[in-house]
């Protein structure tokens, strides 16, 4: 049985992992901090780790991408997209017997809202309009936020988190679907030393390769030439992002997602051309990318 490291029970990562693996038998190993999730697979305690890397509203999760580039050398093996449906969670008796839509809840009694910073940012319009008086506090995961609220009754504390998290900790959903945008999805990757085939009827699958490209210094037009190597071969880039190399101010590397498998002749020749320009190229992974958007829209309703 495969061992899967991920953030705590009741987090979006937990929901996403359950949906990805479906009925497949796996052992889920929950960790409080994302660094421990990475290190579990790096040390061999787990076979794979579930890592959220991008969100519709907040964009890339920079900390997690930096870990993949700088801290560990573990390839991406699977990618999938899952909806981030956040809810306001607490004890209904503290705020009134409201409906699942938040009607009847006395939001003026909310003194604090806790959540992961990315989840919090997805709900800022709701928070500012309903409970502007509340203190905002960031914690390591949405599940941790719900747990902290559970441990501090009677203080007017609430959490932004999942329905799974509320159920796990025995709290109430005070207001459901409080994200500011309906099309709020998170992109996850499964990292591990070995390729992994996911079963089930996943129709929306495409091949993707993630590259880290470092440009040579003092080479005017280097990025243009790199992009040209993909363009004239008609290779589609689904994402380009610059990140600091952490070696020198003003030095950046580029993360590029190419919708092509690594073994493709076109992609391998493009990489060869880029390397001939003096660029450094590192492959973070070449993997199947699953899209569950249509299926999970029904799951979350």
Automatic annotation (TrEMBL):
Pathway: Amino-acid biosynthesis; L-phenylalanine biosynthesis; phenylpyruvate from prephenate: step 1/1
EC class: lyase
Domain ACT: 211-288
GO molecular function list: prephenate dehydratase activity
Prephenate dehydratase domain: residues covered: 2-193
Site, as annotated: Essential for prephenate dehydratase activity: 186
CDD domains linked: ACT_CM-PDT (cd04905), PBP2_Sa-PDT_like (cd13633)
Example of a GO cellular component annotation carried by this entry: cytoplasm
GO BP annotation list: L-phenylalanine biosynthetic process
Catalysis: reaction(s): prephenate + H(+) = 3-phenylpyruvate + CO2 + H2O
Record EC number: 4.2.1.51
Keyword terms: Amino-acid biosynthesis, Aromatic amino acid biosynthesis, Lyase, Phenylalanine biosynthesis
One protein family per Pfam: ACT
Superkingdom assignment: Bacteria
Lyase is among the record's keywords: yes
NCBIfam families: PRK11898.1
Protein name, as recorded: Prephenate dehydratase
Species in which this protein is naturally found: Paenibacillus macerans
Organism classification: Bacteria, Bacillati, Bacillota, Bacilli, Bacillales
